[in-house]
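I hope you will forgive my troubling you with a question about protein structure. The record follows directly beneath this note:
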Amino acid sequence: MARDVRHRHFGIKGLIASLDSPVVSGGNIMPRGDKSKYTDKQKRKAEHIAEGYEDRGVPEKEAERRAWATVNKESGGGNKSGSGRGKPDTKVSSKKGGAIGGKKGGAASAARPASARSASAKKAAATRKRNQAAKSR
């Protein structure tokens, strides 16, 4: 029977880390909530995201938790030192949506009047025709 790789034993440090729930970092036990490994930019980003959540009525502690989760998802955790420093952020959470990003999935064009959609379609057809003619020369 194949061994389940999710349940490997990682030694005494791993056992202590899982029981007491601190994070083991480079052999040292680092308490949760320590933000010393984050860059100033990451800290500013988390603060900005938390403010946005608080403006929408999310409690302060929950807003901070969500903000740091977003920063971690986009940047892969603290970037202050180590081999991962300098990697670009993914911005995956920022692209996800919301009021600022506008409507998605055709909803924006569906909200426009038929005459505006028709004018856009005619303009696009003319552009394609003009480009095709220029290409065949």
In short: Confidence is low (pLDDT under 50) at residues 3-9, 15-25.
